[in-house]
Amino acid sequence: MSSENYSDIIKFMTQLRLDWFILLILGIVVLTYTVKILRKWAKTLSLKFPKHRLLVLQIETTAVFFVYIFGGTVMVYSVLSPAKELMIALGGGVIVAVGLSLKDLVASLFAGLILLFDRPFQVGDRMSFDSSYGEIKSIGLRAVRLQTLDDNTVTIPNVRFITDAVASGNSGALDMMVVVPFYVALDADIARARDIIYETVVTSCYTYLKKPVLIVASEESFQTGFFIKLSAKAYVLDVQYEEHMKTDIVFRTNEAFLKEGIKRPVLNYNHMGERKLGEP
Are the C-beta atoms of 184 and 264 separated by less than 8 Å? Predict the structure, then answer.
């Protein structure tokens, strides 16, 4: 920028009146409380209409984006009412500053807009990213917040989702496939074990029965031994009940296995202290 542009900015800043400053602060407060109210309403509606919980959260995310971007722009322009020449001068200064020191932040901001419209995942989705897995709680201007199943909040910059691979478990749907593995010995009654698992899954209060329930069998090996892996594949009614469903199925299936005498593979130790696959 030229020295004339710098002088225009300095002149403008020195002529700012106190009432303009107060209005600007009030505008920021209004924006903040507007976002808080939107999030409170979204939480209330998601509890009142659980079937539309993900839709409500997605609308909330979009609304917060527009409040911050357009509300902030309108507020600054209406309160300060800067001249066109000053806006050009300020714009040039901002671009230079951004290019030198805030490139990562601006990259995340633009990435946030891309995530909002491209929608590779949405608020409420169960997502795997690097070593983190959990539910997306918010998609902000700078970062995505993911809550893990251990109730930890992981903050991931938006720009990472543009180049890295992301796995979404439900892609905006309320239901999601859940896989629960079980292991039985080679000489166990595999057909009966499969029936027990199927009965347990379809009678779980968390299972979404409008989609298929499958029991998939495979032979697995561990060191010198082999065993049968039976994987229950079913859909949970709501992704927030994923762990509840797994726990319910595991508890009741293991209880039925004990009653029916279904043999399970166990790990024993030989005389060398090494683990080997054996049977009880």
Answer: yes
Residue 227 main-chain phi, psi, to 5 deg: -155, 170
Residue-wise pLDDT tens digits, 262-272: 998 875 544 44
Residue 125: closest CA among 238, 246, 237, 245: 238
The alpha carbon of residue 238 and the mean position of all alpha carbons in its chain are separated, in whole angstroms, by 14
Name the CATH topology of 126-168: SH3 type barrels. (2.30.30)
Helix (H) or strand (E) holding 277: strand 275-278
The answer to pTM > 0.85 is no
Strands 167-168 and 153-157, bridge-based pairing: unpaired
Decide if pLDDT at 147 tops 80: yes
Residue count of the chain = 280
Given 3.30.70.100, 3.50.40.10, 1.20.120.530, 1.20.1440.230, which CATH number is that of 176-278? 3.30.70.100
| CA gap 70, 76 in Å, rounded | 10
Q: How far apart are CA 113 and CA 142, in angstroms?
A: 10
